[in-house]
Design a protein that fits this description.
42% of the residues lie in helices and 13% in strands. By secondary structure, it is an alpha/beta fold.
Length: 647
Amino acid sequence: MTIEQVIPPQQPSEVENAAVNGRYLIHEKIGEGGMGIVFRATDRLAEHILAFKQVIVPTWQYNVDEETESEIEEALRLALAHEFETLASLRHPNIISVLDYGFDEERRPYFTMDYLMGAKTILAAGHDLDEMGKINLIQQMLQALTYLHRRGILHRDIKPANVLVTYRTVRILDFGLATTHKSTMQAAGSIPYIAPEVWEEQPHTEAADLYAVGIIAFELFAGRHPFEVNSHRFIDQVLDEPPDLTLLNASAEVTAVIGKLIEKDQENRYTSAEACIAAFSQAIGLPLPAESIAIREGYLQAAKFVGRKLEKETLLKALAEAKDSFGSSWLVCGESGVGKSRLLDEIGTQALVQGALVLRGQASEDVSGSPLQLWRSALRRLVLTTPLDDLAISVLQSLIPDIGRLLQREVRPAPELNSAAARQRLISTITNLFSNPNQWILLILEDLHWADAGLEILQQLTRLAPRLPLLIIGSYRTDEKTTVAEQLPLMQNLPLPRLSADEIADLSTNMLGEAGENPAVLALLKRETEGNAFFLVEVVRALAEEAGRLSAIGQTSLPQQLFPRGIQTIVQRRLSRVPDAAVPLLVGTAVAGRQIDHNLLPHLAKATHTVIPVETWLATCAEAAVLELFDGNWRFAHDKLRAGILE
């Protein structure tokens, strides 16, 4: 029995129209379930609409003792944290994307995700489509499951309400019951879509997820469930009675595929989601759906985290100590592309679900901006949850121009001082913000090799950290000329080496499946990349472009050398996907640094005579894997790309 079957949802009147942590303005309810309620919300930092999911335990509805009530609440909290953690590791065009995780003023957890405007369930969206249109939706659902199952994740709650369609694109959501185990004995799911073997207390495997897809496919083509859901005989029908396939308004070939998907014996079903996709394609006489760049990037950019065991354990131990007000500061160092950012992302996700306020900043090679620009992003988030007097607000306005809008307060100019005194006042104000936190903090600062002029604040914070609930993790490149380690002697160095041969093999399998185990493929990856994670992904990307799809890599002869001119070859391959009309704006943004200021884009577009609408330009560059949306903001997918564009 699932939590949904135990706890009816609470009426959300107390939550609607509220502001959470000064950042999220909550609007109307758009969905609900036993694990929480989903609202439409506005992110005041990024100034866009998103979906806000929160655990709300309606204790007043239950006649239960305090201990049981506490157990229910804790189960819900853990379920939401698990769902966010699972989704944060995924990147696929047919899976919902999560953005942020946190706790409100009453310590109720929440997370935010993409808002799907005008979304319909797969049944509603497919109702009026022809056979080919319905199968297109089913295959998109199966492409998401192919990705999940490749990563060892079982969804365990595939049902129409969790498979939404917006602008003809399927998005799977609600991963509260998902598990990373290859199989599990714990029964879970929504009754109409639970596979026969799960009712018989057998493990839930990939085949059970595919059974649920088969039931949805049946409903799409028949307009009803194959069995009587509301009958007391429903489970007996699922276990013993064959479905009436004559109800399907489909060709004989498609009917046969659906029939195989909902076989009683899982051994008689398809062996994988990929096999289902192929079967549907064959049934309608079409080739396999093309592997889009977005799907391919999901396997490449969000492959399962591998290696770094010692480094990850070290930082997680420091995170636990910071929670108990024994803070510390660390410098993760390594060559460009070795995987520093990915390690920091993993630690950031862990910190979020444990209740930390995660703040991020990134230094830029562009020296024309403020030397304290490194701190702007982190401070915009921090001021929302920290009490500030009028003087502090006025001082911070020089670094956070929109602080008045964020805090919804009138801001007066700060008293005039000479430039040196004004700078020292700003530095002291920033340091004080971190010295009196309302919650424990993880501060991530990347690319510190470019932050020499902005390190004074960090020097002060590293002295204070051991007495604060504050963990500071910075990163810098060892292949850049820098004295950052010497300037920050109190920060502990954590070198990040290249991936070992075993780790290369592990990552290859995670990205490519069986193709990644091919000895010739592994030999090429080791030879071309020498364990540099960035180059490893680029080699696989190039091979996939040549082969047509990731799974086809290694089926033909492999090249001896892919990147004779190094990074320039990679940049040229990426830029070849970008229309010529979009390139000048790309160069203009590269000058300003890796992070992209969305508010400046219209001005840069005008200056570079770019006629493509800004939003279209962003989508085009993201499709080419040159730009990416991270933490609600656009940036270059890797600084190597930005540097290569400028060169």
